[in-house]
Amino acid sequence: MGNHYELDLIFRLTIIHLKLEKGFDNMDDQQLQQLVSQLSLDYFKKPFIDKACFNPRLRTTGGRYLPQQRKIEINRKYLLELGMEELIGIIKHELCHYHLHIEGKPFGHRDQEFRTLLKETQSPRHCQQLPSEQRKVVSDHQYKCQQCGQLYKRKRKVNIKKYSCGRCKGKIKLVI
Asked: Which of 23, 41, 63, 163 has its CA 20 to 30 A from that of 82?
């Protein structure tokens, strides 16, 4: 697929250009379209002739490819919270769906052609979880072993007469 050093240099220059031009935090749909087109040419050696845009309604996914509309939608939060490298990974992933669909090949996540293309283009299978969307573990009940001090956090109450410490088999006691 080409010299990886050259591709990395091209993307670093593209990122620097976008940062200098407008600041990547303020990237608009037109700049996103340019970036997607450039990534398509560099990694897939094929043009991206359809539409790419940000979708503010996406919450927990980095992006999606809509085959009926031949459109790529990207979650802007990933750019703002995790940066340009994560965004490029998401775009490459969606471009794998796009190019396989255009060629009439299976483009689902479980299809072998899709997984092979992901590896060839060094695209991620999944994107990271957004820091703002991470759920905090709520523990209403805390138990502590009376022998070894092991702490257990639970959402539901535990019958302390029925259960014992998993580490030392000692008795557990409700703390909170």
From this structure: 41
Of 40, 29, 44, 76, nearest in space to 57 by CA: 76
What pLDDT digit, counting tens, does each position of 119-163 carry?
A: 999 999 999 888 888 766 567 899 999 999 999 988 899 999 999
Mean pLDDT of the chain: 87
For residue 67, what is the domain's CATH number?
3.30.2010.10
**pTM attached to this predicted model:** 0.68
Residues serving a catalytic function are: 94
Assign 165 to helix, strand or coil: coil
The whole domain housing 111 covers 4-133
Q: Pinpoint the alpha helices (H) of 22-110.
A: 29-39, 76-82, 84-102
The answer on 101 and 76 residing in a single domain is: yes
